[in-house]
Specification:
Length: 715
């Protein structure tokens, strides 16, 4: 489907409530799980997914490509071929069901392990009611959050194996397959298994919950961090941690002497305070009432490998466990080589580098229980070369072209000193396009205090002058090439402008901008209203009597006293060739036909003397605008300058429409020559007039049947 039509369809689907979790989730590739499953059961066959075929393309293109040694001997088998008693989930889904295979997706598995700590949230992704028993048809489905909407992903249960064993993620119980099928659905979402190699746990955590992730550097930890971890775990947030590697790639996944793995994603699954038993025991029956007791903070961590555990203090077999009460020891201590272990919080801060906490959206916290909920606002947008990809503040000439969003903080939260909110800027679809050589863009955002004179205005876009004369109020911590940048802010009530951008200008990308606030905040895009302020021109008899003009008209019009599109092309191309200060390769026949359509009042397909005079004056005024907006006097207008030029000609366009104009009329060098500029303005005026003629009641809406639509768009 053409891109613009696809975006319109997506927008309409969202306005109807599609893209919500559960039954309202969008069907990935249009595949309806219930319909496909029913058809397979009725026909007595097992489902084979044509959209994600069990073969080399589903594995990858490079490290897991058809010629890679890593894919030799791989066969695709169903769980019913691997064991006599396959189960989707046995005795509940737990974090020990996730063991890493031959794929570098520990970041994903760490998120899955955290997901199992909240069964309600798990059930949003791993949908209940699926099994290998009743009406088994070899088909399963899972739901993921993707940039503001939930999608339902269908897969068959043919899994990659080697020597009769699952190649990638698997459960410690060889009869259990929910985690392997979840990994396959996630691989389908991103195109192939290899797309899952390497990443940050926050990516998967957000795809599982729709939440937003804050990262904490542990070198200079927040003094209240342990309490924040406990609070986050109690709210069902997903937590992960990792040890940063040095600049040397050789350090990645090196195992330290304490058996901690560098560059590897771990799950944080618990945080407890326990009382140390003093020599001679407690002096009273309740330790926390005794003056001699000491509390120690412990944190529980899990390695997705399902093995390789911390061997320092508070590890499974360490002597420290004998120093706490019997009840705490029985409750917390678990001796098994399952990848999960306890360590003191002080050791955690010393050995680990980064902690990520994925906060959940309000709908993920249904049921209340006194849990404090965020409010959420989401907007999608795009950066496009030559129109809305203005780059960072280091490029002030183009920075103002970036999409602009305004947030109104109208009520203070629990802290009377201001309003707390978290801004997350997430770039879309880059992992899926890795195969095409597209890497992550370097992204960030800036926040400005909106001056009082702009308060309440939403159909006015701030121009270059504003950003050259105003300083930022806040900004993202840094520009970085990661899927999402996220920062927490605390500002006084008021209206603020948020500008998301890539670091370099002229880089194409799509993004999702989200604001999580502790109290209700009003958030919307700031953009120009689409309208035409072009006035009809009237030609006096004196203007018509211009001898030089009449001579020019008569030379080409001949006896019929009218000009066709072919005649216009001949006249204009002769005249513009005389203009040495403008770069043009001449008017196209299509542009000249659009000029005739704009001014042909009698439907003859030709222009009279008066109609030609109106057109002549228009083009002269367009030439003046073109020269004025060509700031470097190169004779060629940039696509960034084009927006201001279009406005000077009497049109107001918003970001999406400007993107269309740039795509249609600019050169590969992002320049617009004079003839294309004129063609753009003529086409715009023509389309506005058609709409205004048909919009008889001024409602801003018109209806077309197919023939009418084709007639208008083919003009």
């Amino acid at each position: 489907m053409p891109g613009i039509a696809g975006k319109l369809q997506q927008s309409r689907a969202r306005s109807e409530g599609l893209g919500q979790r559960g039954a309202r989730a969008l069907q990935y590739f249009g595949q309806d799980y219930e319909a496909l499953r029913s058809a397979c059961v009725r026909e007595g066959r097992l489902f084979e997914d044509e959209k994600f075929e069990a073969g080399p393309d589903a594995l990858g293109y490079k490290e897991l490509g058809p010629r890679s040694y890593k894919t030799r001997g791989v066969t695709w088998q169903r769980p019913t071929e691997l064991t006599t008693n396959p189960q989707f989930i046995t005795e509940g889904a737990t974090r020990t069901d996730i063991c890493q295979g031959a794929l570098g997706d520990c970041w994903l598995l760490a998120a899955i392990a955290s997901l199992t700590l909240n069964q309600d949230i798990l059930a949003r992704v791993v949908l209940p009611g699926q099994s290998f028993e009743e009406d088994y048809a070899g088909i399963f489905h899972f739901q993921f959050w993707q940039y503001g909407e939930w999608v339902d992903v269908v897969v068959d249960d043919r899994l990659p194996t080697r020597d009769g064993k699952l190649l990638f993620v698997h459960s410690a119980d060889r009869n259990e397959f929910w985690s392997a099928l979840l990994e396959k659905a996630y691989a389908k979402l991103y195109g192939y298994y290899e797309a899952l190699s390497g990443g940050q746990t926050c990516e998967a955590s957000e795809d599982f919950t729709g939440g937003i992730t804050e990262a904490y550097k542990l070198e200079k930890a927040n003094p209240d961090l342990f309490r924040l971890i406990q609070e986050a775990l109690s709210q069902g947030s997903l937590l992960s941690c990792s040890i940063e590697v040095s600049s040397s790639e050789a350090d990645s996944e090196d195992v330290s002497k304490e058996k901690l793995v560098k560059g590897h994603a771990y799950s944080v699954t618990g945080a407890e305070e326990v009382a140390l038993v003093p020599p001679g025991g407690f002096t009273c029956g309740f330790p926390w009432l005794c003056s001699s007791y000491e509390l120690i903070q412990l944190i529980r961590i899990r390695n997705p490998w399902g093995k390789v555990e911390w061997k320092g203090p508070w590890s499974d077999g360490s002597a420290e466990w004998t120093g706490i009460g019997d009840a705490d020891r029985a409750r917390l201590r678990h001796k098994a080589e399952d990848g999960e272990f306890w360590m003191s919080f002080s050791d955690f801060l010393q050995h680990y580098s980064v902690l990520e906490i994925c906060h959940l959206t309000p709908d993920a916290l249904d049921g209340g229980g006194g849990v404090k909920k965020w409010t959420l606002s989401t907007f999608e947008g795009s950066w496009r070369r030559g129109s809305t990809a203005g780059g960072s503040r280091d490029f002030l000439k183009t920075f103002w072209m970036n999409p602009q969003f305004v947030i109104k903080l109208s009520k203070e939260d629990d802290d009377p000193s201001g309003c707390s909110f978290v801004v997350g800027l997430l770039q879309k679809n880059r992992r899926r396009r890795r195969r095409l050589g597209e890497s992550l863009l370097t992204i960030g955002f800036f926040i400005y205090k909106l001056p009082a004179e702009y308060s309440g205005q939403r159909n006015v876009r701030l121009g270059r002058k504003f950003f050259m004369t105003h300083r930022t109020t806040a900004h993202s911590k840094k520009f970085i090439n990661t899927r999402e940048v996220c920062s927490r802010f605390h500002l006084l009530p008021g209206e603020y402008l948020i500008i998301p951008s890539t670091y370099q200008p002229h880089q194409d990308g799509d993004f999702c901008l989200r604001v999580f606030s502790e109290t209700q905040a009003h958030f919307q895009e700031l953009d120009d209203q689409v309208e035409s302020r072009v006035q009809d021109l009237h030609i006096s008899r004196q203007d018509q009597a211009d001898g030089q003009f009449i001579g020019l008209f008569g030379q080409q019009a001949g006896e019929g006293c009218e000009l066709s599109a072919f005649d216009l092309r001949s006249i204009f191309n002769k005249e513009v060739a005389k203009l040495t200060d403008l770069q043009t390769d001449g008017f196209s026949l299509q542009s000249c036909r659009n000029m005739v359509n704009l001014l042909d009042n009698d439907g003859s397909g030709k222009l009279s003397l008066v109609e030609f005079k109106i057109l002549w004056d228009k083009i002269q005024s367009y030439g003046n605008i073109y020269n004025e907006k060509d700031e470097d006097k190169s004779g060629m207008m940039s696509s960034m300058e084009m927006r201001q030029a279009v406005e000077a000609a009497g049109f107001s366009v918003n970001n999406p429409l400007h993107q269309v104009l740039v795509a249609r009329y600019s050169q590969p060098s992002l320049t617009v020559d004079f003839d294309d500029f004129v063609g753009c303005l003529v086409r715009l005026e023509c389309m506005f007039k058609i709409f205004q003629t048909l919009d008889t009641d001024g409602s801003g809406e018109v209806e077309f049947n197919m023939m009418e639509w084709l007639s208008v768009t083919l003009l």
